[in-house]
Amino acid sequence: MSALHIESFLDPQTETFTHVVHAGAGTACAIIDPVLDFDGAAGRTSTVSADRIVAYVHAQHLRVEWILETHAHADHLSAAMYLKHTLGGKIAMGQAITQVQAAFKPLLNLGDDFVADGGQFDHLFADQDTFAIGTLTATALHVAGHTPADMAYQIDDAVFVGDTLFMPDVGTARCDFPAGDARTLYRSIQRLLQLPEHTRLFVCHDYPPRGRPHQAYSTVAEQKALNIHVHDGVNEDEFVACRHQRDATLAVPRLMWPSIQVNICAGQLPTAQTNGLAYLRLPLNVLGG
After folding, report:
1. b/e map of 134-157 (b: 16 or more CB within 10 Å)?
2. Model confidence pLDDT, tens digit, residues 172-221
3. Average model confidence (pLDDT) for the chain?
């Protein structure tokens, strides 16, 4: 087994963790869930968060083989395309991203130029696909529920679970986005909780209660004992009822529309129009009460 190194970077604006996984300095690496900074009021992107990743990769003399997305995020824009152009590597996503693209294409009126076939990504994973990150072996796990396309990536004793699970005192992902499903999420979580109890579960986001610092991971044992939504003893019907009740109180994510339309395109920003400016779309009166 190769030595596993994980460096986690927190973007405080969106409370997103980006993880860089490798076997040591001078080896291949994967970058998981990178963030492109976005000022929604100004309509301005920047690469401050992504450039922290670039600096780390250069400092460690790493070779980027993969840029992995756990799902099409609704709360931050992906820096995957920027990192690919800067560092190389293949952008990958779960193959069910086509369902997410098909759901949002009409809402965003993306037209014939946008094809909902996942071709915007370099690679689409199926459940249980294995792939190499240099000397490391990774397995893609389909963990649908939050969205139909959610993937987790297992590498040695670490699993990068995206939004499927949060820290135990925060709970689990919402399921009220198009094609989300609480029963499916429960079954996906149970699959993760069948892993050995020492397995580390690295989250994409942490929203800590007041007084607790952000944490990048918990263990299977901690989740089973302490997760406020899905600890041992919570059955599927109870979880679904809890999830539906909670989801009904949640606001639409602040950056949902900008995030989705960029992220279903693998982090590619819209092309400029005839005036030289690029635009993001904001459909009116679609979501919310």
Report:
1. bebebebbbbbbbbbbbbbbbbbe
2. 999 998 889 999 999 999 999 999 999 999 999 999 999 999 999 999 99
3. 96
**pLDDT-based confidence at residue 288 (cuts at 50, 70, 90):** low
Query: CA 25 to CA 262: how far, in whole Å?
Result: 32
Which residues have CB under 8 Å from 119's CB, separation 6+?
A: none
Strand order in the sheet with 35-39: 44-46, 35-39, 77-78
Q: Which pLDDT tens digit goes with each residue over 109-118?
A: 999 999 999 9
Residue type at position 183: R
Cα–Cα distance measured from residue 28 to residue 63, given in angstroms and rounded to the nearest whole number:
4
Tell me the C-alpha distance between 118 and 101, whole Å: 8
139-150 pLDDT, tens digit each = 999 999 999 999
**Distances from the Cα of 140 to the Cα of 44, 83, 128, 159, 270, angstroms:** 34, 21, 5, 10, 29
Who contacts 272 (Cβ-Cβ below 8 Å, separation ≥6)?
A: 278
Residue 82: both structure tokens together: 């920027």
Torsion of Cα atoms, 53 then 54 then 55 then 61, to 10°: 110
